[in-house]
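Many groups now describe folds with learned vocabularies. In that spirit, our science desk offers one protein's residues alongside their backbone shape tokens.
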Amino acid sequence: MYRVLVTDGMDQQAIRELRESGYEVVEKFYPPEELKKAVREFDCIVLRSATKIDSSIVDAAVEKGRLKLIIRAGVGLDNIDVSYAEKRGIKVSNTPNASSTSVAEFTIGQIISLARCTYISNVTMRQGKWKKKEYTGTEIAGKTLGLIGFGRIARKVADRAYALGMEIIYNDIVEIENCPIEYRSVNLEKLLSTADFISLHMPAINGRPLIGEEEFQKMKDGVYVLNIARGGIIDEEALLTALDNGKVAAAALDVFEEEPIKNERIYTHDKISLTPHIGGSTIEAQERIGEEVVSIIKENLI
């Protein structure tokens, strides 16, 4: 019987389907040192963002274990040493399609929240403050949305933003085929200097931030910045400086350099809309992720 370890939770219908199909499923989170031992007893591990798979865990799984498959129940693979795992003969998969709509809708919601100050007025209202005159917002219609990274999620964001009257520009490291002519591809410097709203939808790159002090200086004064992608692609200290000097009007962060977040300057800043990495956390997305995970397991462990 194939054994599957689910470390960070998964849709229960998917769990039931796997068990009914004859797989033994264990739902348990292990700290790194304990995971090195536990992973040896499983053929497949299904994880989200809380579990990290580095070379030491891969070595433990291969040298004294039976691990054949690692599945990231989500889009990014930043928390898995993919090249090393595959080099050691372990297949790595993810579920790139399942949460795209949820994250795109979430991004649009954050754009509107920043533009209309709802993220902070909700807080101050609960403090008994009536700041009606201080929260004059801006319409998003007619504004330019710059998307850094133009994969599945960003394209869905673009479609929704365009329907709301926004102009769409984007930058990606690859040429985008079959892109609507209404969306313009520009270089990164052009995007930074012309966009009213900048939203990142890309993986981390070599552990270095893409947006730092130099990039913030190139942006328009009063720009709005969103990171719904991966923690670390925006330099958080540079963002704080840009917020404090007015270069950035407000920012929305769903991901952080360290999760759970411990940077008090970030989580107490009144120009940052904060959410705890919930961009893809919808009932529908979790169901689709579960379905994809089941399909991947059945295709590879037979």
